[in-house]
Amino acid sequence: MSDRYLTFVNSPWGHWFAKTVGLAQPLRLQRQQSGLANPVIVAGAGRLAAEVQRIFRATDTVTAQPATIKAPSTVKVQGAVFDASEIVDLKQLDELYEFFHTNARRLAPHARVVVLGTAPEHCSDLSQTIAQRALEGLVRSLAKELRRAITVQLIYVAPGAENVLESSLRFFLSQRSAYVSGQVVRLEKPVDEVPDIDWGLPLKGRRALVTGASRGIGLSIAQVLARDGAHVVCVDVPQALESLQQAARQVGGTALALDITAPDAVAQVQAHIREHGAFDVVVHNAGITRDKTIAKMSEAAWRSVLAVNLEAPLQLSTALLQGQGVNPGGRIVCVSSISGIAGNLGQSNYATSKAGVIGLVQGLAPLAAVQQVTVNAVAPGFIETQMTAKIPLMIREAGRRMNSLSQGGQPVDVAETIAWLAHPASGAVNGQVVRVCGQSLLGA
Ligand SMILES: NC(=O)c1ccc[n+]([C@@H]2O[C@H](COP(=O)([O-])OP(=O)(O)OC[C@H]3O[C@@H](n4cnc5c(N)ncnc54)[C@H](O)[C@@H]3O)[C@@H](O)[C@H]2O)c1
């Protein structure tokens, strides 16, 4: 569904009008390029500096010198990385002030900013714990105030995980993360060995299962995983057979018509595995809403939402892990929602199911790690699909604007985030929930 306001303010007349009367002027997000922001200013002097430089050399990224208060610069840059991993006390936080104070205006529209830190749980004393925790407030505030479609993230890298930064840095410095902002991601020792990576086709030779793949976000996930080289098995209800087959044809994959809540759903997936082999990526995307306030909600509406959104992913994940249905180095990615974080009026069933998905991810991740498999979730905010097209106009408009990027996301924004979590080099990200919501105010 088209966002008429976004189209209007990005037209010459609309831009003039919005500026004249003081209306918000969100920029249409850029999503076309796969490469890293270039050039990038690199600052800070932590234990990640050498790895960051190596990644920039490998990706032909030009690094620019940061401006200082004494030597200001007006040359624009597409990105900034501040390595704050060795900031150990409050005084050193001033270095971040000076850097962002003098460089904020150098960031071009759509720029990407990443701050690297050491998670408080890995800090050795009180002063360092406080300083590192303080980075969260800085990053979330910058994500709100830099505007012009600029995104800002904090990546906490555990000691010993320095060499597994690349897939995350590539993602957060590219246009693929256009609708992800104000996020805090933790990289721990990876659950698996990092294999040799073909960065152009990272999923080549791998098999992926995507539920709810015939339309919306699921179709986009199937397309992006196929672009990355995976053979995608597309699952959707038998009633959607025609669009499911079309989706599978489009991505060069296989259609598996299946209601994931059917009593024999797990058995059908296991039979497929016996014939074609185990999966490397499993994406639990299928989901439904049956909105009503709880006093008016039927038991069927409550039960069906929990069955599709939570019980089916739980049963399938545990059965696949128990039966070696996910290969070592595999990735399970669930689709939660910011409703599962913040709760939502009229969505007690949906929010319960999506909060349960977060519990599923957090509970299963350490168990799956033993099999060298990660389990993570994305939590989309307002994404333009048939699901959100059903929302009444005024609520839909509020959903689109109540975030730092002042617009809804596209299915591809969720799909790209899942592709990063599904990446063979992302074994350091486990048990996490990454919001794809433009830093929505809901549950912030
Ligand atoms: N659109 C948003 O703004 C948004 C926000 C947060 C989370 N999400 C989540 O993203 C996921 C995809 O949402 P969407 O907007 O693309 O929805 P959608 O309704 O467009 O697509 C969902 C797909 O899941 C399939 N499906 C439903 N029940 C199924 C079952 N029992 N077995 C197999 N397939 C089944 C449907 O047939 C459909 O193809 C859902 O989990 C949803 O809760 C969406």
Which features does this protein show?
Rossmann fold, 6-stranded parallel sheet, binds nicotinamide-adenine-dinucleotide, 2 domains, alpha/beta, 18% strand, 444 residues, 7-stranded parallel sheet
Helices and strands, with pairings:
Blueprint: H1 4-9, H2 12-21, E1 40-43, H3 49-58, E2 63-64, E3 77-83, H4 93-103, E4 107-117, H5 126-145, E5 151-157, H6 166-172, E6 183-187, E7 207-211, H7 216-227, E8 231-236, H8 241-250, E9 254-257, H9 265-276, E10 279-284, H10 299-322, E11 326-335, H11 339-342, H12 348-369, E12 374-380, H13 386-389, H14 393-401, H15 411-422, E13 433-436
Parallel strand pairs: 1-2, 1-3, 3-4, 4-5, 5-6, 7-8, 7-10, 8-9, 10-11, 11-12, 12-13
Helix pairs in contact: 7-15, 9-10, 10-12
The chain binds nicotinamide-adenine-dinucleotide.
Keywords: Oxidoreductase
Protein name: 3-oxoacyl-ACP reductase
EC number: 1.1.1.100
Characterize the structure shown.
The longest helix has 24 residues, at 299-322. The protein has 444 residues and is of the alpha/beta class. Helices cover 39% and strands 18% of the residues. The two termini are 26 Å apart. The chain folds into two domains: 31-187, NAD(P)-binding Rossmann-like Domain (Rossmann fold, 3-Layer(aba) Sandwich), CATH 3.40.50.720; 207-436, NAD(P)-binding Rossmann-like Domain (Rossmann fold). It has 15 helices and 13 strands. Helix 9 packs parallel to helix 10 and helix 10 (299-322) runs parallel beside helix 12 (348-369). The strands form two sheets. A seven-stranded parallel sheet has the order 9-8-7-10-11-12-13, with helices on both faces. A six-stranded parallel sheet has the order 2-1-3-4-5-6, sandwiched between helices. The protein binds nicotinamide-adenine-dinucleotide. The site of nicotinamide-adenine-dinucleotide has 28 residues, from helix 7, strand 8 and helix 13.
